[in-house]
Amino acid sequence: MIFANQLIYWYLNNKRDLPWRKTKDPYLVWLSEIMLQQTRVAQGLPYFIKFTEAYKTVFDLAKSDESLVLKLWQGLGYYSRARNLHFTAKYVADELNGVFPNNYKELLKLKGIGDYTASAIASVCFDEPVAVVDGNVYRVLSRYFGINTPINSSKGIKEFKELAQTLIDSSQPGTYNQAIMDFGALHCKPQNPLCDTCPFSSSCVALEKKLIKELPVKEKKIKIKKRYFNFLVVVTDDNQTIFEERIGKGIWQGLYQFPLVETQQSISEEELVNQEGFVSVFPKETTLSLFNTKDVVHKLSHQHLYTKFWIVKTSKVAKKTISWKDVKQYPVPILIDNFLNQYLNTKK
């Protein structure tokens, strides 16, 4: 209990002023927690504000078209979060009459909600004493207790969850959970933690044994896959282009893109025009030019995309087209959005 008391005391004096901290509405807390997965608060905050202005209740979000949700999410990444968010909003609105489950076990059943999010909502909104364990919590606990079990191993996940559960202040679980997350984000940081002013400096194992930089431990990362993307940026004589929705379970499902030719390596113009994906789209003569002289490297968690944007001027194409003036209305990956901003600026 001494650990929890010190942590909460630190939190009450140092906590960040965030809009979702001022409510126990499970809709708003859920929204913030989904947005902040794999995302820094500074990046997620503007999106939270935009979403809560557009969708004041879970019913508003449920009624929205998925394409509009994805457009509002654009730039935040990990788009499966947005699709799951929309799916769950519809389920809560239609099947649960807009009322979120009030406990950890039932919250876990909702799509897109895992252990961490269920723990956060249950503790903050319903005072259920279930401990959150995220990257910040792993770091604080591994350093303070000197634990070198890999945090991304099955053993580590179980060990840290059990330890976290023994430490939680059951009288104020929401406050405790927010305290340990904020402490990890602001004080016990990944790089250059503030050990000199740390309230736990006299009892921190990592500080005593000079293991701050070594903890927490992670097992070796998955090998990064390289992929080579060639986007065919169509410009017809009457200022039309081709914009296609990505389908399937891969990256960017539900977002829009130009026709894509994926290859095993970076290719030349001569090689591109002989690709089946090029020939099938352009039955007539085209004028081809490369927009970016160097491959744009877009880094995702397990893959790096080496991307070329080919400007294809033509009179006719074999696919449905849209007007260039409408392209910015569609939800797109940040890679495409960055290109559009550059390309459209050259046309002004």
Automatic annotation (TrEMBL):
Its EC number is 3.2.2.31. Belongs to the Nth/MutY family. It catalyses: Hydrolyzes free adenine bases from 7,8-dihydro-8-oxoguanine:adenine mismatched double-stranded DNA, leaving an apurinic site. Coiled coil: none annotated. Keywords: 4Fe-4S, DNA damage, DNA repair, Glycosidase, Hydrolase, Iron, Iron-sulfur, Metal-binding. InterPro entries: A/G_AdeGlyc_MutY, DNA_glycosylase, Endouclease-III_FeS-bd_BS, HhH-GPD_domain, HhH_base_excis_C, HhH_motif, MIG/MutY, MutY_C. The keyword DNA repair applies. It comes from the Bacteria. Adenine glycosylase active on G-A mispairs. MutY also corrects error-prone DNA synthesis past GO lesions which are due to the oxidatively damaged form of guanine: 7,8-dihydro-8-oxoguanine (8-oxo-dGTP). Residues 35-186 form the HhH-GPD domain. The lineage of its organism: Bacteria, Pseudomonadati, Bacteroidota, Flavobacteriia, Flavobacteriales. Its cofactor is [4Fe-4S] cluster. It holds the Pfam family HHH. It comes from Tenacibaculum pelagium. The keyword Chloroplast does not apply. One of its GO terms (biological process) is base-excision repair. Binds 1 [4Fe-4S] cluster. This is Adenine DNA glycosylase. GO terms for molecular function: 4 iron, 4 sulfur cluster binding; 8-oxo-7,8-dihydroguanine DNA N-glycosylase activity; adenine/guanine mispair binding; metal ion binding; oxidized purine DNA binding; purine-specific mismatch base pair DNA N-glycosylase activity. PANTHER family: ADENINE DNA GLYCOSYLASE.
